[in-house]
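Task card 7
Instruction: Convert sequence to structure tokens.
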Amino acid sequence: MKFLADENIEREIVNCLREEGHVVFYVAEMEPGISDEAVLNLANKEKAILMTSDKDFGELVFRLNRIHQGVVLVRLAGLYPEEKEGIILGVIKEHKDELLSAFTVISPNSVRIRKKK
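Output:
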């Protein structure tokens, strides 16, 4: 799969996804400090699912009805990077066909996937 990882996603997670064969563009390596709007535009340009821990993307997608390839909101604060990697990889493997054009929230004990209408 192809992802654009926001700069608030840990490098360890980016590296892990790459090691698993995913294509991952990383804002921290490309254009650190760009606006949320620019991050979403970049994800769309690359036809990549945006991975972020920034809840503001929910407003862009739902309230402002911004077009997106898919958003994965990672809500795993307080966990070690290795734990986050395992959870995220598990969600990708189990739900890969559902992530495109959906807003997905990953938390320690649940995964919520809301398809674009």
